[in-house]
């Protein structure tokens, strides 16, 4: 991506102080989603991080990760698997508890969503402390998938989330703060 597009994308991400709790500077992606050029640019750039590898399925994390993961899957021509917050999936699930920048939660995936040996890419909107991504990557690993790595739209590098997921293959981020 050229530096002009990169700075347009960076400037479109809105800072919201003290959301959802005091002391958190929330990165609001909705202005990017509302702009067709920025949206296309984002998905094309995320897709370009994996062009040399065949992906069978992308796992997207509830809820903002669904937006990027599903668009990315359509762009790459592969399947999409939702990793959902506890209690939302109707079939048999595997689950894991985790902590994120502003709380704790549980993530679940259908136990038949990924077949052993499938090439899987994780997609999410944002990497902060890495707790959420690590939980999803653990679920993918339990399914005996061939983990290709992870792609995020935004990385909050000062929270060192990358360290928490370093054993799960390469992680790419488009915009770093
Ligand atoms: O790296 P971490 O500290 O774990 O934080 C990153 C996660 O936090 C947000 O999800 P959130 O649980 O707020 O869900 P949402 O997408 O439904 O807003 C974001 O979409 C990531 O999934
Ligand atoms: N600061 C932040 N902004 C937006 N989403 C987040 N998820 C975790 N931390 C976040």
Automatic annotation (TrEMBL):
Known EC number: 2.4.2.7
Location(s) in or outside the cell: Cytoplasm
Substrates-to-products reaction catalysed: AMP + diphosphate = 5-phospho-alpha-D-ribose 1-diphosphate + adenine
One GO BP annotation of this record: adenine salvage
Pathway linked to the protein: Purine metabolism; AMP biosynthesis via salvage pathway; AMP from adenine: step 1/1
Domain (Phosphoribosyltransferase): residue spans on this chain: 46-154
Cellular component terms (Gene Ontology): cytoplasm
Gene3D superfamilies membership: 3.40.50.2020
GO molecular function, one term: AMP binding
Keywords (A to Z) from UniProt: Cytoplasm, Glycosyltransferase, Purine salvage, Transferase
Function, as annotated: Catalyzes a salvage reaction resulting in the formation of AMP, that is energically less costly than de novo synthesis.
HAMAP family per the UniProt record, alphabetical: Aden_phosphoribosyltr
Family recorded in the similarity comment: Belongs to the purine/pyrimidine phosphoribosyltransferase family.
PANTHER family to which the protein is assigned, alphabetical: ADENINE PHOSPHORIBOSYLTRANSFERASE
Subunit relationships: Homodimer.
Name of this chain's protein: Adenine phosphoribosyltransferase
Source taxonomy: Bacteria, Pseudomonadati, Verrucomicrobiota, Verrucomicrobiia, Verrucomicrobiales
Gene name of the record: apt
